[in-house]
Specification:
This is SAM-dependent MTase RsmB/NOP-type domain-containing protein. By secondary structure, this protein is α/β, with parallel strands linked by helices. The protein is built from 24 helices and twelve strands. Helix 4 crosses helix 6 and helix 4 packs across helix 8.
């Protein structure tokens, strides 16, 4: 009972009548926890379904559940995922029973959650109007489910669920160390007390743990010392490589993991403008920034396309990270998008939506290239139309501004699709091998030394002659040359050759 007394009043408790509050007090701890988890899960489910309907999610299922406002994170996450997994069945059963109408239609998400518990989950105590209402219909719901099994010619609910499911991708648990709060070795030591941990060989501040390692309640995660961030996502800010003291723009910043990573790479020095158009996503962005402890980030709630590169407040920006809205096709299993109605309903690619996304991506990248000296373009998409085609479309404009494609992570073997000359500089990650499909392109002005670097080099010694300064600049240019990666790798990847070299050894083997 002590745990119940500590609970702060929530929206769920404030709407209860005196009789319901008395009934809740009589519940066991497990029953009480289930009651509140259903309310929290319903709110998350509403955000997920509304975002899916608009094709503009406020955040992934995980990010919505594991935010500070959600108390029972583990229980809520499981309930949301399982309800989404069974959502097509639940809707079918509710429709067959003619239950979802009137005032209950306005509380559809809560009805979905409770129906899941009645049919597939744990026992439902008749506390709360929705629970009491649905428990009266329990027999009708079970009968409708039995008829659905017969109609679909399957024997079990699991067979029914599997009709529309895709296999899950097992991958290591990646943890990015927030070096604003803790160094990599200290984080490795602390996490290693209870888990097998090792450093990643590509991203310096990334640690690798066994698949399915649950760290959501770990103190280092709760206090922002480490972030649960995938490897491919962590490669984006690393590819931009911002230096301490720079001014950097994150063009489409929410939910903020990459923004916080930029701040850590800059050691908290300089300035970052985090731009985000969506008001709801701005809230999530600010939460992430606060958790990271970064003090050099300014949040701008506005459209990146409306930023004037000649405006004095942004004219000194040296690097831009552009991770625009995309189809998310490369992170379907990671974000759990395969559980969403839009994914189940899509038999073919939504060509119209992809074309609209690509048009925006081209416009945003062209705008980013109008300023700065380094620009990273990234997506979590596997579609050529959002990746190589976008890059190819802006190459003439990029060249007119003095940009050229550089090669991020030259040791990485999977490069861009060979659809234009220079695509070997682009980087892809494989959803099957890497657990998520990302795309990264890096534009740099390597053919000219920027004014700031030139001034710094030439002023190192007043005794330097004009010739010596020129020689020093020439040597600086030579050190910036990035190794070329041959196109045979693309052909091997594109045609699925069996001799494709393994990028990553298995980090952990079953004992």
């Amino acid at each position: 009972m002590a745990r119940a007394k500590k609970m702060k009043p929530t929206r769920a408790t404030s709407t209860l009548g005196p009789a319901d509050k008395l009934e809740i007090k009589r519940l066991s701890n497990a029953e009480r926890s289930a009651y509140f988890s259903r309310r929290e899960a319903a709110k998350v489910l509403r955000s997920v379904l509304e975002g899916d309907a608009r094709r503009r999610a406020v955040g992934s299922i995980k990010s919505l559940v594991f935010r500070p406002a959600i108390r029972n994170k583990k229980g809520t996450f499981a309930l949301v995922c399982q309800t989404l997994k069974h959502l097509a069945i639940i809707k079918n059963v509710l429709e067959a029973s003619s239950i979802l109408k009137g005032k209950w239609k306005r509380q559809a998400e809560l009805i979905f959650i409770i129906t899941y518990d009645i049919l597939f989950g744990q026992a439902v105590s008749p506390v709360g109007d929705a629970e009491k209402f649905l428990m009266q219909w329990k027999d009708a719901l079970q009968l409708a489910l039995a008829r659905l099994l017969v109609k679909e010619k399957v024997k079990t609910v699991e067979d029914l669920v599997n009709l529309n499911q895709i296999p899950e991708v097992s991958k290591p648990r990646y943890v990015r160390v927030n070096t604003l709060k803790i160094d990599v070795d200290s984080a490795l030591l602390e996490l290693g007390r209870q888990n097998m941990v090792q450093k990643d060989d590509v991203v310096p501040d990334l640690l690798i743990l066994p698949p399915a390692t649950d760290l959501h309640n770990h103190p280092l995660v709760i206090n922002g010392s480490v972030f649960l961030q995938g490897k491919a996502s962590s490669m984006v800010a690393t590819a931009l490589d911002p230096k301490p003291g720079w001014e950097v723009l994150d063009a489409c910043a929410a939910p903020g993991n990459k923004t916080a990573h930029l701040a850590a790479l800059m050691r908290g020095k300089g300035r970052i403008i985090a731009c985000e158009l969506n008001k709801e996503r701005v809230k999530r962005l600010k939460e992430t920034i606060k958790l990271s402890g970064a003090s050099n980030i300014k949040v701008l709630n506005g459209d990146f396309l409306n930023i004037n590169p000649k405006d004095p407040s942004v004219s000194t920006i040296r690097a831009i990270l552009l991770d625009p809205s995309c189809s998310g096709s490369g992170t379907v299993s990671v974000r759990l998008d395969n559980l969403l109605p839009s994914y189940a309903a899509a038999d073919v690619k939504d060509t119209e939506r992809l074309n609209k996304l690509a048009a925006f991506q081209k416009k945003a990248l062209a705008h980013a290239l109008s300023s700065a000296e380094r620009v990273v373009y990234s997506t979590c998409s596997i579609h050529q139309i959002e990746n190589e085609d976008v890059i190819e479309s802006v190459l003439p404009l990029a060249a007119s501004y003095g940009f050229q494609l550089a090669t991020p992570f030259p040791q990485w073997q999977l490069r861009g699709l060979p659809v234009f000359q220079g695509s070997q500089h682009l980087l892809r990650t494989d959803p099957a091998e890497d657990g998520e499909g990302f795309f990264i392109a890096l534009f740099t002005k390597e053919d000219r030394i920027n004014h700031f670097e030139k001034q710094a080099i030439c002023n190192t010694s007043e005794a330097l002659s004009r010739e010596n300064c020129s020689d020093q600049l020439l040597n600086r240019k030579k050190r910036c040359v990035i190794p070329y990666v041959g196109t045979r790798l693309f052909q091997i990847w594109l045609h699925g050759k069996q001799d494709w070299p393994q990028k990553n050894q298995k980090h952990f083997q079953n004992k």
